[in-house]
Amino acid sequence: KFIVYCLEDASKRCFEEVVDNLCIVFDLNNFTLSCMDYQVLKNLIWLLSRHYPERLGICLIINAPAFFSGCWAVIKGWLDENTA
Question: In what residue span(s) does the CRAL-TRIO domain sit (predicted)?
Answer without folding.
Answer: 1-84
